[in-house]
Amino acid sequence: YDRLIAICWPLRYCTININLRMLLIIAGIWSLVVLLEIFPVIFAARLPYCSSREVQSCCCEHSPVYKLACTDTSFNRQLGTAKTLTALLGPLTFIIFTYAIVVVAVTRIASISQRWKAFHTCLTHLLLVLLYYMPVMVAYVLGNLRLIQNFDLYTAVLTASVTIPPMLNPIIY
């Protein structure tokens, strides 16, 4: 969003990205995150647990919790899949859409040096997006297709995918 405004409307950037608008965007995103997380927690809390209550994961996620239930958990699995796809593909679709608009706007710039400067501004962000989304998507696909049999390896891939990009953020920028 920031790159879109900065490149497509550079002279109006300060009037578009005001503090109130940023606060509303942040509040909206947090509200969506809470809504995405509250329903799986409610449905997992309603399940009967008759065997071990030890979660086999480094964090208490939806999937390792509902798998401990001693009843049919197909609804919880479908809910978890829908939540994960929404959380991954929603922002990724928005990022791709905004960058498509940015690419069209940049190709209309006459000067090659100005084009390069605009693309360089976006390149660092795209690198971080790829560093985050690629391992998470690969881990999700491999986990759903049951291609990763070792749960510790699966947990390590997911943990690295959400830890390494924020650590690289200051270095890349």
Automatic annotation (TrEMBL):
It is a multi-pass membrane protein. Its main location: membrane. It comes from Cyprinus carpio (Common carp). The keyword Membrane applies. Pfam families: 7tm_4. The lineage of its organism: Eukaryota, Metazoa, Chordata, Craniata, Vertebrata. This is Olfactory receptor. It is found in: Cell membrane. InterPro entries: GPCR_Rhodpsn_7TM, Olfact_rcpt. Keywords: Cell membrane, Membrane, Receptor, Sensory transduction, Transducer, Transmembrane, Transmembrane helix. GO terms for cellular component: plasma membrane. One of its GO terms (biological process) is G protein-coupled receptor signaling pathway. The keyword Membrane applies. The chain crosses the membrane at residues 22-45, 85-106, 118-141. GO terms for molecular function: olfactory receptor activity. Residues 1-173 form the G-protein coupled receptors family 1 profile domain.
